[in-house]
């Protein structure tokens, strides 16, 4: 159940931050905790994260774009292989939507303006 998932993700140093922040502020907040915005490498992780975040609407993750979409990792960027975009996304509305969020109700991803404030999800921590 959900409690088992929470325990599993605690051991992976996942941290759900309910305070709404812009994507850049969320990224900085994770870094202060010696972690990063969450990376979703596979469908199983995506499904588990959606269950953990069931009380939220959208949550920032470590997905962003300069020319193409990439995952933010420790000091590097990593191209993404799992693509779980919501239908019609990414659409980069008006050229301003360069940050990724999970749409919790169905576990899909959406591109949003980076200065919108959402809760966020960090992975990693001082113990790693």
Question: Tags for this entry?
Answer:
single chain; three-stranded antiparallel sheet; alpha+beta; 3 helices
Write a structural description.
The mean pLDDT is 84. The chain contains three helices and eight strands; from the N terminus they run αβαβαββββββ. A hairpin with a 2-residue loop joins strand 4 and strand 5. The chain has a single domain, classed as Mannose-Binding Protein A, Chain A, CATH 3.10.100.10. The strands form two sheets. It has a five-stranded antiparallel beta sheet, with helices on one face. It has a three-stranded antiparallel beta sheet with strand order 1-8-2. Helix content is 23%, strand content 36%. The protein is an alpha+beta fold and 128 residues long.
